[in-house]
Amino acid sequence: MKNKIKYLLIASVLTCSAQIAVAEEEEKVVHVLNWSDYIDEQVLTNFTDATGIKVVYDVFDSNEVLEAKLLAGGSGYDVVVPSASFLARQIQAGVFQKLDKSKLSNIGNMWDDVEERVAQFGPLNDYSVNWHWGTTGIGYNEGMINERMENAPTDSLAMIFDPDVISKFADCGVHFLNAPTEIIPAALLYIGEDPKSTDTEVIKKAEGVLAKVRPYIQKFHSSQYIDSLANGDICLVIGWSGDIFMAQYAAWDAENGVEIVYEIPKEGAVIWFDQLAIPKDAPHPDNAHKFINWTMIPEQIAIATNYVWFANGNLASQPLLDEELLNDPAVYPTPEVLAGLYTVPTYDAATQRVLTRTWTKITTGY
Amino acid sequence: MNIKEIQIPTFLKRIFNGRNTVISMPYLWLLFLFLFPFIIVLKISFAQPILAMPPYTDLLKWGESWWPTIQASFDSYLFIFSDSLYIRAYLSSLKIALISTVLTLIIGYAIAYSVARAPTRWRGILLMIVILPFWTSFLIRVYAWIGILKTKGLLNLALISLGIIDKPLIIMNTDLAVYIGIVYSYLPFMILPLYANLEKMDMNLLEAAADLGCRPFKTFWTVTIPLSLPGILAGCFLVFIPVVGEFVIPDLLGGTRTLMIGKVLWGEFFYNRDWPVASAVAIILLALLVVPIMFYQKSQEKAIS
């Protein structure tokens, strides 16, 4: 009898603990907010098949919009992908939780070169892992450019900042990214200033550079140029590497005779890193860790990379990438080019205001 | 079992009678969906930006005493008036709203007039056609205009293939595209109040004018237009007020030079992360719009009485 009671007790304790375990287990869902056109959906399907966790996938197209959502709090997302310069400031504002590295068994696959560069922004490696990285450079429609100018300096910032050059392409459409933190440093570099300068007097010098070329720029926008470039509606853009490759692919796929080329300016270019991170108030932090761990599997990230045509931060995945991609110096720059790439600084509020005001003056003329 | 009727105190009965409940509904609606959000925005406009979640300081500071100290700052308002950009943006928005309201009125009046004078059995269908675009998302319809207006878009292809022009027209990313987008999007808001008014109009008055020898055109100016004035005013305010703060249409269709307060507000909020200045911009915009809103209210009261 005594034994029976003992067994009952043990049995009930076991059931109870089983129930607690069930209760503690998160709902089988993870909410991911990533940049638009930035994944092969196969990666998500594979994740769901392997773990049973459903992925609710949303997209955004600007760091600023993402930041506003995060700072307001309660965004409801488990994994978000800000760029490193923004992430550094968001960590300071207390938006993110430290990653639990014990849940990230695949972290050894990551590329230490990328991690070292990311560390320049702050303690980012404690809070995030790299998704993809790339450069900000010049994309153009080869046919339309050659038609208008022989031997155009397509490998130089002169292509977009020299009024004598860019004016030749005004009639076929020039777009710039609507991102002051990308364009203003490039303009400073063109006139021989330090692109990373946070000195407001130096930043204001960018206004003069851009005012001269402003009449030839049709639009400042951060995502429309992908379609416009692919359709031949515009011929020249300063934009993000992978987006321009996407336009290149779209044009090739449509067989519309449009040939898009991407080049990293020889003077140097912005290198940026998009990092997977988990907000403090993420409703499913466990699933978020599982998702991030999944993206670090070489086979999985390779699927995404071969689709989006950006470089990734996963060294172990490199043998699995398209050879054409891995050997393309516009995607995986040569060590010499890599040395000339610079990261944009994280501006403080007062400097940011000068930067934005300068930008408004450039874009609207007021 | 005997269930006793629950006794409600008479003073509560007096407050919660049917009439008061019905009357209170619109006030509750305004309280929760207008006044509370407005107070929050007003509160943020007096705060200071900081790097935190949320990115502004608390207006009330709870110290030792039971009463909090208020730390209001007028910096955001002072800042807006220290930089001509904001005033220009307000004026430019008012100008764009005014021009598009006039354009919408001219087109909307013609459509509302034709529908109101169409045979009765057609009116339902014609009105349906006016409302039909609402079944598709506003954003998608604006995107559709990109496909029509762009350099290699439908409009240019059609005009070139018809031999009317040799070189594509540059409409996309200009102010013209913004006007087209606004007039298109807000047309139903103009047509519906105008139609409601024109449809009720006493046709005997027009017949009387004709009998007395007045020409149709003069009848239109001296009889139809004055009688439809309440409809015109309602339509104009319904278009003018939201267009002043419009953001989506100038962002998607307009060029970067198109200066509107909606875009400036966006920049304050997203680029500068300065929620207090963004809120102050919104509060000033509201203050500017209170004047036409009051006129609208007055005209509505008149129409009812």
How would you explain this protein's 3D organization?
The complex is a heterodimer of chains A (366) and B (305). Chain A is built from 18 helices and ten strands. Chain A has helices at 2-24, 42-51, 63-72, 84-92, 112-119, 124-127, 142-148, 158-161, 163-166, 180-190, 200-213, 224-231, 241-254, 285-295, 298-308, 323-326, 335-340, 349-364, and strands at residues 29-35, 54-60, 79-80, 128-141, 174-176, 219-220, 236-240, 260-263, 270-277, 311-312. In chain A, the strands form two sheets. In chain A, strands 4, 5, 6, 7, 8, 9 and 10 form a seven-stranded mixed β-sheet that branches. In chain A, helix 11 runs parallel beside helix 18 (349-364) and helix 12 (224-231) runs parallel beside helix 13 (241-254). The longest helix of chain A is centred in the N-terminal third of the chain and has 23 residues, at 2-24. Chain B has 14 helices and two strands. Chain B is globular. Classes of the chains: A alpha/beta (366), B mainly alpha (305). Chains A and B meet through helix 3, strand 6 and helix 18 of A and helix 4 and helix 13 of B.
Write a concise synopsis of the structure shown.
The complex is a heterodimer of chains A (366) and B (305). With 366 residues, chain A is of the alpha/beta class.
Summary tags:
heterodimer, A: 366 residues, alpha/beta, 3-stranded parallel beta sheet, B: mainly alpha, globular
Determine Rg of chain B (CA atoms, Å): 26 Å
Low-confidence stretches of chain B: none
Mean pLDDT of chain A: 90
Order of helices and strands of chain A: HEHEHEHHHEHHHEHHEHEHEEHHEHHH
Category by helix and strand content of chain B: mainly alpha
Low-confidence stretches of chain A: 16-23
Helix-strand category of chain A? alpha/beta
Shape of chain A: globular
Shape of chain B: globular
Biggest sheet record of chain B: 2 strands, antiparallel
Number of helices of chain B: 14
Radius of gyration of chain A: 24 Å
Strand content of chain A: 5-15%
N→C terminal distance of chain B: 55 Å
Residue share in helix of chain B: over 70%
- Oligomerization: heterodimer
Secondary structure: number of strands of chain B: 2
Q: What is the mean predicted local confidence, pLDDT of chain B?
A: 89
Distance between termini of chain A?
A: 90 Å
- Main beta-sheet strand count, sense and barrel state of chain A: 7 strands, mixed
